[in-house]
């Protein structure tokens, strides 16, 4: 039976004439039994947002945004993206029959840029945001996009409540599903960049009466929300980003204050593992559970490992990882591994298998 997409939650979402769907949502929650046993947890689960049509949770925002664009009679759409939002908006914009203009982060992984090319979308690459980007440039870009949207009657598809609050309501559906799938979750670990995903998840959990603590997971090199939660800064902003984790590189998160308030309201906290720990967690998840996600997703597992070391989690807790995007979106970091794959002849296969088998 075909998925109804997020439209099955229409009564809890902004009103639109019709939903522009590609079958998003209803993503599974899987039990990470091997990891749970290894880490000494009674249960550990993962919400597989990587299984949405374009490989990330951003599809939920795109379906809501493009449905609203049609409802409001916009001439097209415009957005900023480090990759995931751009691909979602391109796919759903095409589905809606609306033209789009995308400002792409110049340092975005090649896989995310290449995936956009089949679509009839105008794409520009913007310097000065992403890795080593400054808060000033990121803020200026969003303002430029806002002005262009207003002047050209374009739907403003920036994936942040500060710019697109109605479209961001699509995120709430993650929590509506979690309430059905894991009502006993004690913690929800959310990879956090601009703060919009966490804000929507926390809102959805409250709406469904769930009391799970919400944990903001940011890379240590770009952790303005976590720094704010830990009392290290007065506002949820830093001057520049020093992390290579794509999608989590926002030194001045547009929804930072909303996200921090949502964390505190849930009695949660923020955790900031470094880039190396996040990349190790990415490999651990693949090798232990067969789940391959992009590094931003793995920030949730890295944060769980950090919190277990600091005794913030108890063995009886049931944390849920929100795995935001698929692993194929960022493959360049595995080029060194690929170079080590041996080239052999057909006659060498049996001996290689024997050698491999004896090493197990």
Enter the CATH topology name of the largest domain. Rossmann fold
| Shape, per Cα inertia axes | globular
Number of helices in the DSSP assignment: 13
Number of domains: 2
Helix content: 25-40%
CATH class of the largest domain, named Alpha Beta
Order of helices and strands: EHEHEHEHEHEHEHEHHEHHEHH
Spatially, the strands of the biggest sheet line up as: 1-2-10-7-8-9
Which CATH architecture of the largest domain?
A: 3-Layer(aba) Sandwich
The oligomeric status of these chains comes to: single chain
Structural overview:
- This protein has 360 residues and is α/β, with parallel strands linked by helices.
- The chain has 13 helices and ten strands.
- It has helices at residues 33-39, 58-72, 84-96, 110-114, 135-152, 172-181, 196-207, 224-229, 256-265, 275-289, 295-309, 335-339, 349-359, and strands at 29-31, 45-48, 76-81, 99-105, 122-126, 154-156, 187-191, 213-217, 269-271, 319-323.
- The strands form two sheets. It has a six-stranded mixed beta sheet with strand order 1-2-10-7-8-9, with helices on both faces. Strands 5-4-3-6 form a four-stranded parallel beta sheet, sandwiched between helices.
- Strand 7, helix 7 and strand 8 (213-217) form a beta-alpha-beta unit.
- The longest helix has 18 residues, at 135-152.
- It is globular and about 65 Å long.
